[in-house]
Each structure stands twice: as C-alpha cells, then as structure tokens.
Amino acid sequence: MLPIHCAVIKIGSNVVTSDSGQPDEARMKHLVGQVAILLRKGIQVLLVTSGAVAFGRQEIALQEKMNPVLKKQIWASAGQIALIQKYKNLFATNGYQVAQILVTKEDFRDRKHYLNMRNCILGLLSQGIIPILNENDTVAITELMFTDNDELASLTAAMVNADTLILMTNVDGVYDGPPSDPDSKLIPVIGHKMPELGSMISPTKSSFGRGGMLTKLTMARKSADLGIQVIIGNGKKDYILQGILEENVPFTYFEPKPSKQSQKKWLAHGEQYYKGEVVINDGAKSALASEKIISLLPIGIGSISGEFSKGDIIRIIGENGEKIGLGKSEYNSATALQVLGKKNQKPFIHYDYLYLFQHD
C-alpha cells in the first residue's frame, strides 16, 4: 500500500474531455468516486482540475474569427461555473463538500498572498472540505500564466506540504519513447540519479491543454526534489486512484528526496518571480556550497541589479553567470547597494530563506 496522507491530484484536460472536446461527465463521476475512496481512508485531497474551457465551449458558441485569447477567457469564465457545479453535485452525492479557489501566478509570488492562500486551503482541509483549484484564466496574462495545471499542482503540493502529487493524464506514465510506439516501455520508477529523460519525451502537447509530458516530467522532478512523491498515471482507466494506492496498476513513480522546509518549497518555484539579481564572488559561492549552514552576507556580493523591496525573491548567480539559487531579500535594493561588499552586516539572505539549485 502506497503511503499517502495528503495528496494533490491534478486532472488534465484530456482526462475530463472526450475526443470531440466535449466534457466527459461519466469520467468525472468515476474519478470523484475514486477520490471519495481516498477520503474515506482518511487521506486529505486537493483537486487541481482542467475542463472549464470545454464546459464553456459546450455552452457558448463564438465566432471563429474572434481573438483566441478573448475566446478562451469567455469560455473559461462561463465554463468554470458549470465545471465547479458539476464537481459540487458529484461530491455531494458521495457526502462531501467542495470549495473553489481560482489563482494566478501572482498569488504565489508574494509571500503574504502565498501564506494567506495556504491558510485558507489548510482551513478547508481541516473541515473536511475539498479545495478545487484552477487558474483564473479571465485575468491571467501570458507572462503570468502557469505553464499548465501541472505547474499549478506542483506549486500547490509544495505550498500545503503535501506528501504526494498525482498527475492524471491519458497515458500510463513516462515512456522511454513515444507512447504510441509499441516498442516503447513504461518507466515504472524514476530515481534521483536517473539520466536526463527530456530527449526521450515527445514534445507534443495535449489537444485541449497547454502542457505536455515534458512539462509533467519537469514539475514531477522539481516536486520530488522537494520531498514529494510523484505519480503520473492514466486518469482514463477505471479504478485508477484505488489502483495507485494499492500499487496494482501501471504508473510512473518519482522517488522523493528528503523533505525541505516549507519556506524553501516556496522559493524552489520562484525562478520566474524574482525581482532582483545578485552576483556573488567565488568565496561566497564556495561557502554556500559547503555542508555548513550559512547565510548570504553583503560582503560576498559583487553586484546587484533590479529594484526590489524587503521580502522579494532574489536570484543568485555566480561570476561566470551560472544560476546558483534563490532567496528572500532582507533588504530593499537601495539599502542593499549601501552595504554591498561590507563586513559586519546582517545577512542579505538568511539561510532559512535560501534555496540552492544544486546543494540544498
């Protein structure tokens, strides 16, 4: 039996839509029944679900020549109502209540927003209410959109300290070649030291979503690095969640590393949110790479770029341009420039809010 206490389950577009692009309500009903089995076993579940655009497309006919972004916003905003209503009714039949949470990347960038959202979700879970998350497509602009709901699910799992992330797609997992090729084999376990698999993965995206298997692989590895066990499985198969729990169906399992502190999980996903950048010298780089618990001090910083406030995420790079890590600044940019390179100053980034790409 796979040990699961708190799981974020992402249901992809190709799982909840038919080949024609219409909502697959029978599949949704079956998956809700599967989630109910986990809930009755005492497992906390958060749902990240696609499908709003499919429901909107079913309800509203729009002109072909309409701007595609506007078209998607209209379908998503109208379809989200139908999608959440469907889930509400299906879960009610199983004796559970749901809550809707619509988010954008901006909600994960600011630490205060992030903690407020986290507290709300944990409050819902404490009351036995299932949080259902989706991207707020009506306000998200291109540069602030999630890659797809795999990224949102990965961020959510890190935020609530979930021990498990389950990505439901329309294939059994990660293959060593195209899944359509009969010679391709499913990779059942991906460990820490597996070679880079990107070259094997087809870049083809979902018919109805933005992402593909390459995105899933990237997000799965990032989550596993943070201490979250990740499963990629086939949501089109009957009894899939029960089968994953009992380990009697095919899926790909990503071995987790030891769990990171919650604030470092927040930082791990912050590479697209940083407000400033610091270049550190080789001495500071070596110190950060050592086994010692050490903060980044102003004396180790050679230069600073960008305007930022205290509490913003900062990217750390080496003198040769290599990306070293991310951290939460203890200074605003003006004050940081004043103490740059000086001794006996408080840390620029405290160790508790420092995430290193290779060494942490």
From TrEMBL:
Residues 276-349 form the PUA domain. Transmembrane segments: none annotated. Substrate binds at residues 50, 137, 149. It is found in: Cytoplasm. Its EC number is 2.7.2.11. ATP binds at residue 10. It catalyses: L-glutamate + ATP = L-glutamyl 5-phosphate + ADP. It comes from the Bacteria. Keywords: Amino-acid biosynthesis, ATP-binding, Cytoplasm, Kinase, Nucleotide-binding, Proline biosynthesis, Transferase. InterPro entries: AceGlu_kinase-like_sf, Asp/Glu/Uridylate_kinase, G5K_ProB, Glu/AcGlu_kinase, Glu_5kinase, Glu_5kinase/COase_Synthase, PUA, PUA-like_sf. Pathway: Amino-acid biosynthesis; L-proline biosynthesis; L-glutamate 5-semialdehyde from L-glutamate: step 1/2. GO terms for cellular component: cytosol. GO terms for molecular function: ATP binding; glutamate 5-kinase activity; RNA binding. It holds the Pfam family AA_kinase. Belongs to the glutamate 5-kinase family. Catalyzes the transfer of a phosphate group to glutamate to form L-glutamate 5-phosphate. This is Glutamate 5-kinase. It comes from Aquiflexum balticum DSM 16537. The gene is proB.
